[in-house]
Amino acid sequence: MTQLDLASLITFIPAILRVTTPILLAGLGVLISSRAGVLNIGVEGMMLSGAFAGVVVSAATGSATLGFLAALVVGGALGAALSFAVHVLKSDLILSGIALNMAAAAGTTLLLFMLTGDKGMSGSLSSQVLPSLTIPVLAGIPVLGTLLSGHHILTYAAFLAVPGVGLFLMRTPMGLRLRAVGENPESAEIAGINVRRVQVGALVASGVFAGAAGAFLSMGYVSWFSQNMSAGRGFIALAAEVMGHGSATGTMFASLLLGIAEAASIALQGVGLPSELMQTVPYLVPVIALVVHARRRQRLLARA
């Protein structure tokens, strides 16, 4: 490997981890709700609202920690609101999630204009930035230390959450009840499990993960909020969960694949190809992957 190739690799891998982080966080949230039988279509709106809340609270208090906590609270609250619409008002889950996404896009734009007089970047609402983390053990290793140390603290949290979520779903009594509700809610009800309570908790937890993903976008990528800055990453997270076959590890690898696509589209914008074409890559890859996934599933069902 030449020095140029090594330098490109050292630059590209951290970029992959950076763009993968919000997709993975939101994808794990979608996984939790999906296994409970309540697919969180509103994850895009929860991310966007979390990003907005993080910047506003951080700017008002001067504390990145309080901004991050506000993003988690707002995400969880929207998860509870979606659950209220579905379980109490008896509205359709998919339509309610779509409505939440639309309301979040319009609401954050309106609030941003009210606070700053500008619906673009909120320059007057500059937030504190959540810190990066240097791991001494890794930092001293040539090349590997550069690749794996010094990333944003939420990047490490996202990847550490993968085994945590996997163990929760597969090895804990609460995770067992959650999966039982998702697979057969009628049987779970007969077994004495409170289906509504489990699904409410799953949607709230999903919203908290989405809020964390939004906080990373506005307090990790940059230190401000802009209109619709989630840019469809919530929908990409939905694709990551489907591509991951309902497992935390699978969701992680699918998120990495989609992160590679997004990082590559950014890197290739300077090679002479139309930037508009390159910007479609992160959205074309999940579509292609989902088509392949659907065809493979059809073959398996046909054999069965």
Gist?
It is found in: Cell membrane. The protein is mainly alpha-helical and 304 residues long.
Structural account:
It is built from 14 helices and two strands. It is mainly alpha-helical. The chain has one domain: ABC transporter involved in vitamin B12 uptake, BtuC, CATH 1.10.3470. The chain has a two-stranded antiparallel sheet. Helix 1 (3-35) crosses helix 11 (233-243), helix 2 runs antiparallel to helix 3 (64-88) and helix 12 runs antiparallel to helix 14. The protein is globular.
List keywords for this structure.
ABC_transp_permease, globular, 304 residues, mainly alpha, ABC transporter involved in vitamin B12 uptake, BtuC, 14 helices, membrane
What is the total number of structural domains?
1
CATH fold topology: ABC transporter involved in vitamin B12 uptake, BtuC
Which secondary-structure class do the elements indicate? mainly alpha
Q: Can you identify the CATH class?
A: Mainly Alpha
The ordered H/E elements are: HHHHEHHEHHHHHHHH
Shape: globular
Tally of helical segments: 14
Radius of gyration: 20 Å
Beta fraction: under 5%
Question: How does the SSE layout of this entry go?
Answer:
Elements (H helix, E strand, L loop, with lengths): L2 H33 L7 H19 L2 H25 L4 H24 L15 E2 L2 H4 L4 H5 L2 E2 H19 L1 H11 L1 H6 L4 H27 L11 H11 L4 H20 L7 H5 L1 H23 L1
Antiparallel strand pairs: 1-2
Helix pairs in contact: 1-7, 1-10, 1-11, 1-12, 2-3, 2-4, 2-10, 2-11, 3-4, 3-10, 7-8, 11-12, 11-14, 12-14
